[in-house]
Amino acid sequence: MDRILVLVRHGQSEWNLKNLFTGWRDPDLTAQGVEEAKAAGRKLKAAGIGFDIAFTSDLLRAQRTMQLLLAELGAPNLPTVKSVALNERDYGDLAGLNKADAALKWGADQVHIWRRSYDVPPPAGESLRDTVARVLPYYCQSILPAVLNGQRVAVAAHGNSLRALVMVLDKLTPETIPSMELATGIPLVYRLKPDSTVESKAVLAG
């Protein structure tokens, strides 16, 4: 039984390119983002990894990443479950603002705290802790049972919603997880033990 779980942050979005806080806003992928998604599929194919089921957020950039990835694997019609539980962290009043403009409005130190602290939310938004509290129950109830049942599972989501999963899988702490960066379009391949802990992890960056 393989018990494979693959996590992929969506390809570059139009707002990533413009250095905007995105959160629950719904921009599409850039041309580079499309290529990153396709490249992720090619890397997985070269590694001999296919899937039985896929999960994405409710946002276009994650859904398109999964569609493009699966097309490269020759599985465009793979069952795919979409859920708001996997959405990016809600940046509240920061959403749509350029990060430099936000620093001018609230001060660079304050914006840094909102971006990199674990439990301080931006105005009207979510902290990373809030995002973890949203993502982990969904993982435990919907994603993990599929993996432990022997299904090969792909998840395309976002920097912060995937941080929540990596925090558990890699046994990171609230102090270390905010500074961990997830590159766009790079598959993280986990093989889990029967007790749900990690047997092995590979980063398909090459």
> What is the CATH C level class of the domain at 4-19 and 32-89 and 146-203, in words?
Alpha Beta
Within the CATH hierarchy, at the fold level, what is the topology of the domain at 4-19 and 32-89 and 146-203?
A: Rossmann fold
How does CATH name the architecture of the domain at 4-19 and 32-89 and 146-203?
3-Layer(aba) Sandwich
How many DSSP E strands? 6
What is the beta-strand fraction?
A: 5-15%
Shape: globular
Mean pLDDT: 96
- Helix share, percent: 25-40%
Main β sheet profile: 6 strands, mixed
Widest sheet: strand order?
Answer: 3-2-4-1-5-6
Helix and strand content put the structural class at alpha/beta
Could you list the spans in which at least 5 consecutive residues all have pLDDT below 50?
none
Cα Rg: 16 Å
- Note the total helix count: 7
Order of helices and strands: EHHEHEHHHEHEE
Distance between the termini: 26 Å
Give me the CATH superfamily of the domain at 4-19 and 32-89 and 146-203: Phosphoglycerate mutase-like
Structural features, described:
- This protein has 206 residues and is of the alpha/beta class.
- It has a domain at 4-19 and 32-89 and 146-203: Phosphoglycerate mutase-like (Rossmann fold, 3-Layer(aba) Sandwich), CATH 3.40.50.1240.
- 40% of the residues lie in helices and 14% in strands.
- The protein has seven helices and six strands; from the N terminus they run βααβαβαααβαββ.
- It has helices at 14-17, 31-46, 60-72, 99-106, 108-116, 128-148, 159-169; strands at residues 4-9, 53-56, 80-82, 153-157, 188-192, 198-203.
- It has a six-stranded mixed sheet.
- α4 (99-106) crosses α5 (108-116) and α6 packs across α7 (159-169).
- The longest helix has 21 residues, at 128-148.
- It is globular and about 50 Å long.
- The mean pLDDT is 96.
